[in-house]
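Friendly challenge for the regulars: who can give me the structure tokens for this chain first? No prize, just bragging rights.
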Amino acid sequence: QVQPVESGGGLVRTGGSLKLSCVSPGNIFSIKAMGWYRQAPGKQRDMVATIDSGGRTRYADSVKGRFTISRDNDKNTVYLEMNSLKPEDTAVYYCKRFTNSVPVGFGSWGQGTQVTVSS
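First reply, four minutes later:
Bragging rights claimed.
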């Protein structure tokens, strides 16, 4: 499988916004679930948000109301819009393309993009 490619990370102040993008090549993007995960230094990688092939979304409690996941199947791209950012959102954000139409099981990972929120 071709790896997804993330972009859009950077340094932002508390309360700011960022929008991450993840491009996943292939002509069957629309039938695959996608997800965003993050990993802070010394911590495990955790789910941030997922979206299945039907557009149904799921969020971690810590980002509900602040982050929005969406997908554009014509562009083979999934987005993560992040608002009201907090220092605890600082992490490397990874995109995952699942092998299934729902966000469970195996998949391929991107290389990650760093998000740093300064206080």
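The mean pLDDT is 95. The chain is about 0% helix and 50% strand. Your move, everyone else.
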